[in-house]
Amino acid sequence: MSRISFTDPDTGQFSWFDPAAARDAISEGRNWTGENWIGAVSGLQTSRAVLYLTRGGRWIENQDASCEFNGSDVYRYLDDDQARQWLIKAADARRDNEEAEDALKRHFPDTPDEEGLNLGGRPVVGPKVETRLAPETLAKVDERAEKEGVKRAEMLRRLIIASL
User: Fold this and answer.
1) Does the pLDDT value for residue 118 go beyond 60?
2) Burial track 96-117 (b if 16+ CB lie within 10 A, e otherwise)
């Protein structure tokens, strides 16, 4: 057993945990700034952050900046929402972080695919389906769509539904 003892900088609470016994340990992944690779969550250049889920079900983040300008090695507790946000940032790293994506799906399966304001774009109707049509058939679809005052995609949906 290799316990790590730490004092949470946010609460001042002294605690310990065994990283070898953790149920999960997720690395943050990296992003390219145009000049350097930096941690997706921590923003550190030479070090990385790791998120642990202890056997007892607590989230602990470790940001080890000891290699970076003689920085500190900090452990802190995160609540479920903070851990979820951490995993979202890590999963969104430009270097696909499948480890974080898998952990997000395992531990927070209800996380939506997107969040935030709808700033426009096409409404979601269903999954995208592609097909090929002969030019004369496509011309007839376009002609009917124009006649009914709808776009081609809407016309295709209507025709398929009407034929089922």
Assistant:
1) no
2) ebebbbebbeebeeeeeeeeee
Reply yes or no on whether the pLDDT at 31 is more than 90.
no
Instruction: Over range 72-89, report the average pLDDT.
Output: 89
Whether the pTM exceeds 0.70: the reply is no
Q: 135-148 vs 152-163: helix axis angle to the nearest 10?
A: 100
As to burial, measured by CB atoms within 10 angstroms (0-12 exposed, 13-18 middle, 19+ buried), residue 56 is exposed
What are the structural domains of the chain?
4-107 (no CATH), 123-164 (1.10.1220)
